[in-house]
Amino acid sequence: MECRWPPVYDFDELGKEINSLVSSCGIFDEFFLEENLNLNLCQGDIVKFPGQFPFIDESGSIAIIDGNYDYWLILGNTCDLHRNLPSPHLSHISPLIPLDSDAPENVVRGLRSYNSYKKFFIPRWDDSVNKCFTIDFTLMASVDKNCLLNVTELTARLTFKSWLLLHSCLVRYLARDDGRHD
């Protein structure tokens, strides 16, 4: 009998790190940097880029998920964006999905506590954006890094603490056990 392959990272330790970051005072008060938005793009930056989400459908064709997205979170590594190499010329982004204003309180509370390993809660970052968002780690798209560098507009940058929260949640999602023997 084959055993279930274990996570590469300790799933429980990542959960403890996430809980520690969320329970520390003021995580949502200090989620975004107030300055330094003129620097190079980094992992965790929110960029304005009106677009649709592409995917490969069941027949192997390129398809689009219904809906338009105005904001995207950069998930690709910062160094990959700025290396002057022919490859990799792609990075990863995920669309910010607006949180419904009438979402049940228990759903919002769960998102704000980062209990879901597939979703990441993003509070609003200024008064012009009058809603909170989530990203769904199952909705990652590849984007040419030159598009990110030349076409998008940086609108918000995570603090170190909120970047660490994002990174911990992303690693928890990617490194969970694979369930191949369930």
Give the helix/strand layout:
Blueprint lengths: L10 H13 L22 E11 L5 E13 L3 H5 L7 E6 L1 E2 L6 H8 L6 E4 L10 E4 L4 E4 H6 L2 E4 L3 H16 L7
Antiparallel strand pairs: 1-2, 1-8, 2-3, 3-7, 4-6, 5-6
How much of the polypeptide forms β-strand, as a percent range? 25-35%
Summed over residues and divided by their number, the pLDDT gives a mean of: 85
Largest sheet: 5 strands, antiparallel
Q: Rg, please?
A: 17 Å
Total helix count?
A: 5
What is the 3D shape?
globular
Helix and strand content put the structural class at alpha+beta
Helix content: 25-40%
Low-confidence stretches: none
Distance between the termini: 12 Å
Could you please describe the fold and organization of this structure?
The chain has about 180 residues and is α+β, with helices and mostly antiparallel strands. About 25% of the residues lie in helices and about 25% in strands. The strands form two sheets. It has a five-stranded antiparallel β-sheet. It has a three-stranded antiparallel β-sheet with strand order 4-6-5, with no helix packed on it. Helix 1 (about 10-25) runs antiparallel to helix 5. The longest helix has 16 residues, at about 160-175. The model has no long low-confidence stretch (mean pLDDT about 85).
